[in-house]
Specification:
The complex is a heterodimer of chains A (146) and B (361).
Chain A: E1 7-14, H1 20-29, E2 35-41, E3 51-58, H2 61-72, E4 77-83, E5 90-97, E6 107-112, E7 115-120, H3 122-132, E8 141-144
Antiparallel strand pairs in A: 1-3, 1-4, 2-3, 5-7, 5-8, 6-7
Chain B: E1 3-6, H1 11-22, E2 31-35, H2 46-57, E3 64-68, E4 78-81, H3 100-122, E5 128-131, H4 136-147, E6 152-154, H5 156-172, E7 179-185, E8 191-200, H6 205-216, H7 221-241, H8 246-254, H9 259-272, H10 278-293, E9 298-307, E10 313-323, E11 325-329, H11 337-360
Parallel strand pairs in B: 1-2, 1-4, 2-3, 4-5, 5-6
Antiparallel strand pairs in B: 7-8, 9-10, 10-11
Classes of the chains: A alpha+beta (146), B alpha/beta (361).
Chain lengths: 146, 361
Amino acid sequence: MAPEFSLHVLVIGLRDRPGAVHSVAEVFSGRGLQMEAFFGTAGSQSPDDSAQALILFRAAAERADFVARVLRRLPAVLSVELLAPDDASLVHSVLVATPVSAGEGVSLATLSPGVALAAGTPAAMQAWLAGTAPRRLGALRLERAG
Amino acid sequence: MDISVIGASGGCGREVVTRLVADGVLGRRELLQLVGGNPASSRPCYLHGLRADLQDACAENIPELDVTDNPDDIIGDVVVMAAGATFPTDARQVGSLKSRDDLARANVALFEQFAAAVARNRRGHPPLVIVLSNPVELGVEIFSRHLGRENVIGMGAFSDSQRFRWEIASQLGLSRQRVHASMAGEHGLGMVPLWSTVRIHGLRGEELAATVARLRGGLALAGFHSRLRSEHAALIAGMMADPVNGPVRALDHIATLPPDLRVALKPFAVHYSQAKTISATANATVDLVKALCEGRAVEVCVQYRHEGESGLVGPVGNRVILEGNVRRVVPADDLTDEELALLRACGEQCQRKIGEWIHGA
């Protein structure tokens, strides 16, 4: 069985222009890397008018670092941060069916009868989802707080 | 695939960059990195201007172009090393030229700086480094020490082999594609013509042997280097005596010599004509990069640091199989004993020189 590489999160500041996301995606696809999650916003959708992409992916640490270095050289990219999945500024969230019990580092907020929002760092959420196996009502979202 | 060209503002580096873009070697989302070879350059804006000019010229299909002067920013899967000091091109200075030793000592620190930077950031996944700068054997040695020898090749023998193929082909009225031949050894007066490797499309057996004998014009391998040295000395003297028209006269004379001598001597005359050998070197480099980008396994004659293969030691031009990086050295069983002995002697001489250059720097 192939080893499972560790999770990484890239927080990428982008130039707010067409094709920027394409450039970023090419760095991954050209290296055979799969994004486990991609969340992108144009400037008009962000609180500070900046275009941003958050990418969750698995890779060996050295490879992840190299991907970050390549991304930094792209004309469409303004900034790149490579974060660990337990970085406290990252919020991974998903709607789940209740009743369900919270796990370590995972917060639950009831939104309506039978529906709660679970949130935590990607590391905490991955562990909770694997262990508790709640019924998910949507796809996971990834954001950076602050 | 991403490509970094170190020394992209130099004559050869710029030509390589221009050809890579104009030939569409890279896709629109692949990265071509223009790396300045001299952080203290008097033209710090040059590469930014070159990038804008290339975008204007080739907007239909242009890769991402990145500019940096920082060796730590190098991210190419293939790194072309074209930076470094070179000989002046003015034939009036031909008599007061810096020696190859001076050139080597001038470039040791530069090779070391870039090799260390690439190794520092890419230890686990080193790129393939193609050394164009001279002395190419020195560049191959230093980059090999940092990145592993299988990841470093020198273009000198590849360019010389391309020239060798052309000199044979042109004499027979053929196109270069129909001739295969390798020029090994040192990129300079220590080159070794491997006549045993000559293959001419449509010729076999006795017909091939007779054609090769005719091409060689009676110049045996045993006499090749002494004849080359005397021709080289005469060529330099001629260009010193007449710096304006000397290079053209030299080219005229060189055209009367056998192909192996033409390969070794013509670049000197071309260089001092002030045209330099930029186009041939860049074309050979881009050809090789294309093969790498297409993932093809190719047999090429390049400078490679040997560790005993075919009895060779050190960075010397020889045939290798390239598939992403150097997979293996081509066995020398088709070479004559004389060719192999000359190659071994050349390798030992290169080793000695490199030791002096590195320790004398």
